[in-house]
Design goal:
The protein is about 40% helix and about 15% strand. By secondary structure, the chain is α+β, with helices and mostly antiparallel strands. The relative contact order is 0.11.
């Protein structure tokens, strides 16, 4: 499958890329449709975690699950990991935009976001970017 980019009615972009996972010893690599190995950048890893957190939070908001623990059991994940990932859904929109554009400092990693995230966006910016 070739890469495909389309603009949606709401202004968002939908990017479609064919890929498969290849298991190699104790690691897993993503292989794109043209056979090239793809190394995930830090911003890609962050984007994936944020997308999961927002999706999981939406499931609870819509009433599909009562809480994060119920969701964790349904998807076969540790409740603590689900709760931590869902906290990423409260990141300020401009922080998410910076992550999506790859405009983040090298030290902004998932490990750094494992600490409690402040509710106030100004405090988030100060914590993550020193602003």
């Amino acid at each position: 499958m070739r890469r495909k980019i389309e603009r949606l009615e709401n202004g968002n972009l939908r990017v479609t890329v064919g890929f498969c996972f290849r298991n190699r010893s104790n690691s897993r690599k993503i292989v794109s449709g043209d056979g090239e190995d793809v190394q995930m950048a830090t911003s890609d890893t962050l984007m994936l975690a944020i997308a999961r957190g927002r999706r999981w939070q939406r499931y609870i908001d819509e009433g599909r699950f009562k809480n994060g623990t119920e969701l964790a059991h349904a998807i076969g994940r540790e409740p603590g990991k689900v709760a931590w990932t869902m906290r990423l859904a409260i990141l300020a929109p401009d922080i998410i935009h910076r992550i999506l554009s790859g405009n983040i400092p090298q030290n902004l990693t998932l490990e750094r976001l494992r600490v409690p995230i402040p509710d106030l966006w100004e405090e988030q910016r100060a914590m993550l970017f020193g602003e």
